[in-house]
Design brief:
Shape: globular
Bound molecules: (2R,3S,4S,5S)-2,3,4,5-tetrahydroxyhexanoic acid
CATH topology of the largest domain: D-Maltodextrin-Binding Protein, domain 2
Strand content: 15-25%
Helix content: 40-55%
Order of helices and strands: HEHEHEHHHEEEHEHEHEEHHEHH
Distance between the termini: 52 Å
CATH class of the largest domain: Alpha Beta
Strand order of the largest sheet: 2-1-3-10-4
Number of helices: 13
Largest sheet: 5 strands, mixed
Radius of gyration: 20 Å
CATH architecture of the largest domain: 3-Layer(aba) Sandwich
């Protein structure tokens, strides 16, 4: 019944086995469909990862589960797609943790500025008990967190001036994700932040409703923000994980075996996504400069001033996030650093 517009994979492996093709046709009519929507465009590693998920799930279930993929916010933004999962009108989305905090406040722990010093530390902490425990909390909100994927370290762009020092933030109108901790952190840095859905961001930058935004280099480049932004700085102020979310209503309707398949597919596709994402984030700063953006490097000394400026905000939010979660993640960071 469903004709797929965006097709992933398409390699010979998916056609190979005769017996499996037969059972797939027998399941006609009874097939389940996963409508998977993401915010970023089809060039982004987030979408490449989603295509990998589709390939694995359709192969492993012999076509009993079909995956339809939608990019560029075609089905909505992070928040509205997450709500659709709760209602059971969409099956999969992969938002940043920041908007997920509007559903499960503990996820804001990842919005603590300068929490993760490196991707290696992020990997270890996200694989650890506290971060994995947060995924389980989603079930109380009719969501199933199948795996962490990666958005990555966020860097600042704007169209007013090069940002090298903390003083340079003064008065800049910065779009933030819909997350209170982000908002307050940017106020503490001296900026004038406005929360906004990602789907409205390009136009807001273009029309000058906001002066700047912050996202990993892959997003800044692949979403062509360089067309409407002049300056980029390696603030690396927050590491954003993505969470691969499934509607609990849908998940509960799967057989045990299918649940295992979607779970391991989300993890496997996540490894692929994270690899591509790191290659992209490492590569695209150069492309941004080639497109004419002026790059400013933040010195260690200046970054320390930013770390100090946001400390009161972290204190203020600790009880909202949950002291146990904050302390648990911070301990995990220290342990990962020491390894
Ligand atoms: C943001 C996030 C987004 C993603 C994606 C659009 O700035 O970094 O890029 O969550 O879903 O809103």
């Amino acid at each position: 019944a469903f004709v797929l517009v965006a097709c992933g994979g398409g390699d010979s492996e998916s056609e190979g086995q005769n017996g499996e093709n037969e059972s797939a046709s027998e399941s006609e009519g009874g097939e389940k469909v996963i409508r998977a929507g993401i915010g970023l465009n089809s060039e982004h590693p987030q979408y490449k990862g989603l295509l990998k998920f589709k390939e694995i799930v359709e192969k492993e279930t012999d076509g009993a589960i079909k995956v339809e993929t939608y990019h560029s916010g075609q089905l909505g933004d992070d928040r509205t797609m997450t709500e659709a999962l709760q209602l059971g009108t969409q099956e999969v989305t992969i938002p940043s943790t920041a908007p997920i905090a509007n559903f499960v406040p503990e996820f804001s722990v990842f919005d603590i500025p300068f929490l993760f010093p490196s991707e290696e530390v992020a990997d270890k902490v996200l694989a650890g008990d506290v971060a994995q425990g947060l995924l389980k909390k989603l079930e109380e909100k009719d969501l199933v967190g199948l795996a962490y994927w990666e958005n990555g370290f966020r860097d600042l762009t704007n169209s007013v001036r090069p940002v090298k020092t903390i003083e340079d933030f003064e008065g800049l109108k910065i779009r933030t994700m819909e997350n209170d901790l982000h908002l307050e952190a940017f106020k503490a840095l001296g900026a004038n932040p406005t929360p906004m859905a990602f789907t409205e961001l390009f136009t807001a930058l273009q029309q000058g409703t906001v002066d700047g935004q912050e996202n990993p280099y892959a997003t800044i480049y692949l979403e062509k923000f360089y067309e409407v932004q002049d300056y980029v700085s390696n603030t690396h102020h927050v590491y954003s994980p993505f969470v691969f979310l499934m509607s609990k209503q849908f998940y509960d309707g799967l057989s045990k075996e299918q649940q295992e398949i979607v779970r391991s597919a989300a993890k496997e596709a996540g490894k692929h996504q994270i690899k591509l994402n790191r290659e992209a984030n490492a590569k695209y700063l150069k492309n941004l400069q080639e497109e004419g953006m002026e790059y400013s490097e933040i010195s260690d000394e200046e970054r320390q001033k930013m770390v100090d400026a946001v400390q009161p905000v972290i204190e203020e939010f600790k009880s909202d996030i949950g002291a146990e979660t904050v302390d648990g993640i911070m301990k995990a960071v220290e342990e990962a650093k020491a390894e």
